[in-house]
Inverse folding.
């Protein structure tokens, strides 16, 4: 028998307190009825004996201490799911906001996810092709991986997210399809409209499920948004046998909402005011990526976070780095130089890359050419440091060639434009042409067999010389 409690003991911001409540459960959903008959939803967020604290999703304006009626629903928050969610837009709490009506649910799924036995996990193999050379070649996204993007204020992470949604595809035809779940937290109306407009213009909306939490929406909704998105992804992956890529931005907005929520409950703050359980809370999101035995589908995650003051030791990127399998870092310096996407390849890393590339997945020479590109670009940074001390004129001929390589690498490999979608073959061939600018004896990460097959200095010089001349000609014509 469901009991209805009349009256509230306390109202504090978006929290209400009830006493003498028996049998309540943490995260249990609550229905709150106002004096005028309208209802609001809430969730139990704290239990102390028979006293419970309820977070009201729609806020506590117009609630009365005496006349408000509260009913515990005996279930956690659930998301209605079916194949119809593809192509739809929801708010942060999973309610449709695209004007197309409610979802006819095949089932209701707990947004907190189902317990996953670690033994049932399958090691991630194969890759997801993003069409972006710096990611596909040097920090390959493996199916079932969690690979965050570390960005900063003013960097084009939103644009990069849209490009990945437009271009991403699975590497083979296994499974029954590919879908993207996109969640935005704490974004302005302009940014939300940009996401929706970009996906529709690119013609990919039919394979996208969108969750949008705006900056003026309640913070409790912001804490629910990634969980609703991951629940939708798990349904598509494990019930519909699809490969699902989950992109959610911005994790820092989510963590700030969590900090504000924790403060309103009077919890003891941890580092920089964030709650002490921030690590386990983030882990409860990130660890929902993966592949399960017996399931044809997979869940891959790209969480995007902005680092305050570009500080990678900030609690949010710091803890994220402990949980996830690498990171893609965006560079303010490359962005200032007009390079898009401004991926800083040296601190970027995909820890699962080695097991999802190579023969049978990408190409047999992938790991070798990636290692050589890393080594050459790292040496470029050393040469730049030396140049700042002794000047470019004093450099050896080989070091000057490395500087030329660095400029070509940034202008032709990293810088590819918003609408350029490169296949993995095009990316690897471009990498070979770039290292072929250098003398063969300088390429110590490549064996002679590979060099005999792919190294061609004359072709590389001709390719980039022609390309540079064509760019100069275009600029001259534009000036005329």
């Amino acid at each position: 028998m469901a009991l209805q409690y009349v009256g509230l003991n306390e109202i504090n911001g978006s929290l209400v307190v009830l006493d003498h409540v028996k049998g309540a459960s943490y995260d249990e959903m609550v229905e709150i009825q106002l004096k005028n008959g309208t209802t609001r939803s809430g969730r139990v967020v704290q239990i102390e004996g028979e006293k419970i604290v309820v977070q009201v999703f729609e806020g506590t304006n117009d609630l009365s201490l005496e006349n408000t009626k509260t009913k515990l629903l005996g279930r956690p928050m659930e998301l209605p799911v079916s194949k119809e969610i593809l192509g739809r837009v929801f708010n942060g709490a999973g309610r449709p906001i695209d004007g197309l009506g409610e979802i006819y649910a095949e089932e209701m799924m707990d947004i907190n996810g189902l317990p996953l036995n670690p033994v049932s996990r399958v090691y991630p193999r194969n890759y997801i092709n993003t069409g972006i050379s710096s990611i596909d070649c040097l920090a390959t996204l493996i199916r079932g991986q969690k690979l965050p993007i570390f960005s900063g204020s003013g960097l084009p992470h939103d644009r990069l997210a849209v490009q990945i949604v437009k271009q991403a595809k699975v590497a083979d035809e296994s499974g029954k399809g590919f879908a993207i779940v996109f969640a935005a937290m704490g974004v302005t109306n302009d940014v939300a409209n940009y996401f929706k407009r970009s996906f529709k213009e690119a013609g990919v909306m039919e394979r996208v499920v969108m969750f949008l939490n705006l900056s003026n929406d309640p913070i409790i909704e912001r804490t629910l948004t990634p969980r609703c998105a991951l629940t939708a992804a798990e349904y598509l992956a494990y019930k519909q046998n699809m490969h699902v890529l989950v992109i959610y931005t911005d994790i820092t907005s989510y963590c700030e909402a969590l900090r504000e929520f924790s403060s309103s409950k009077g919890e003891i703050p941890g580092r920089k005011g964030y709650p002490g359980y921030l690590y386990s809370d983030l882990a409860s999101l990130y660890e929902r990526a993966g592949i399960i035995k017996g399931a044809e589908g997979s869940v891959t995650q790209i969480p995007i976070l902005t680092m305050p003051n570009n500080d990678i030791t900030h609690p949010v990127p710091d803890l994220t780095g402990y949980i996830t399998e690498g990171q893609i870092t965006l560079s303010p310096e490359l962005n200032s130089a007009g390079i898009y996407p401004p991926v800083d390849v040296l601190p970027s890393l995909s820890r699962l890359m080695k097991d999802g590339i190579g023969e049978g997945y990408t190409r047999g020479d992938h790991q070798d050419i990636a290692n050589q590109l890393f080594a050459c670009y790292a040496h470029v940074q050393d040469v730049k440091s030396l140049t700042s001390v002794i000047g470019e004129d004093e450099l050896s001929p080989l070091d000057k060639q490395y500087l030329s390589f660095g400029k070509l690498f940034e202008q032709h490999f990293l810088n590819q434009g918003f609408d350029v979608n490169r296949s993995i073959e095009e990316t690897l061939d471009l990498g070979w042409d770039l290292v072929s600018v250098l003398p063969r004896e300088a390429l110590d990460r490549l064996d002679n067999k590979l060099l005999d097959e792919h190294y061609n200095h004359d072709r590389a010089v001709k390719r980039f010389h022609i390309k540079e001349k064509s760019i100069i000609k275009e600029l001259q014509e534009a000036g005329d």
The first strand starts at residue 4 and ends at 6. The chain has 13 helices and 21 strands. The two ends are 82 Å apart (CA to CA).
